[in-house]
Design brief:
There is one protein chain. An eight-stranded mixed beta sheet has the order 1-2-4-3-5-6-7-8, with helices on both faces. The protein has ten helices and eight strands. The radius of gyration is 19 Å and the shape is globular.
Length: about 290
């Protein structure tokens, strides 16, 4: 495994064909112009190691959302995303895919992906600007069967909500320690801080389990076309919400995988989760081929 790690790093750092450092096999930070936000927005993108040597090949894509208090760089700097992806592809456990993380930070609503009440229109940005930009500027296959979404903590909640409200776009959801909506009845509800008061309405409007409970028969059928995978530690404070969501899916008879492993709300847990997620998503993508 150590030898594979060294191999992955050395390949990722080789210069490109014009003497430039190759972007294949590593995560790089980019920016795009957003009309919604009136300026540049950062994102990080991992391109598979054969991206530059196979210039006509298109790839599945995994939109990976960060948690509150983090930004788009965290999966690389805190979990070593590039090394994980390179190793899994080299061992045959995963297939090459594009992995992209947008930056949802920069305001009081940092990390909250569905604050669309005029204060933080991130959802509008994500679907109307970010996804079209990525899928027109990179060689993405660009259909539901090859598009997955996931994330950790608040990103887990955001990715789950996005798939619940737009099931026609995604074939799979892999959420880790997802903040799937905190209700006033929850033991974790704390309205005492100013920030919590600002977010109260959105908390109560974006409870994923309740969204499933109110889904129409047509929406329930659409949910069945998605691979739902919940990954949460037994010591994680979000376990309560993951269990509630799993139960709601069971009642609705929507297939849903739940894994409760040893661990908490930590990068150690999420790093191990990425090692599980990429092979699972690779199998899902392969089903469409």
């Amino acid at each position: 495994m150590f030898a594979m790690f060294l191999t992955g790093v050395s390949v990722a750092q080789q210069p490109g064909p014009q003497g430039q450092r190759s972007e294949a096999g590593r995560t790089t930070e980019k920016t795009m112009v957003s009309k919604v936000f009136g300026g540049e927005r950062a994102f990080s993108i991992y391109l598979p190691r054969d991206y530059e040597t196979n210039p006509t090949k298109k790839y599945p894509i995994f939109y990976l959302l960060h948690g509150a208090s983090d930004d788009n760089r965290c999966f690389e700097t805190k979990a070593g995303l590039s090394s994980i992806a390179n190793q899994l592809v080299a061992s045959g456990e995963a297939s090459g895919m594009i992995i992209v993380t947008p930056n949802a930070g920069g305001t009081d609503y940092e990390g909250y992906y569905n604050m669309d009440n005029g204060k933080y229109p991130y959802e509008e940005f994500f679907f109307n600007e970010f996804m079209p930009y990525i899928e027109s500027n990179y060689r993405v296959i660009g259909d539901k069967a090859h598009r997955a979404i996931g994330g950790l903590s608040m990103g887990g909640g955001g990715s789950t909500w996005y798939a619940l409200t737009r099931p026609e776009l995604f074939c799979a959801v892999y959420e880790m320690s997802g903040a799937l909506g905190i209700s006033e009845a929850s033991s974790l509800w704390n309205p005492r801080t100013e920030l919590a008061a600002k977010k109260k309405a959105s908390y109560l409007e974006h409870i994923c389990a309740e969204r499933v409970g109110k889904a129409t028969p047509g929406e329930i059928e659409a949910y069945k076309s998605i691979l739902w995978y919940l990954d949460c530690g037994d010591d994680d404070f979000t376990l309560e919400y993951n269990l509630e969501f799993f139960n709601a899916m069971q009642i609705a008879k929507v297939p849903c995988q739940l894994r409760v492993r040893d661990g908490g709300h930590t990068w150690t847990y999420w790093t191990s989760g990425l090692n599980l997620a990429l092979p699972i998503l690779s199998v899902r993508f392969a089903e469409a081929n």
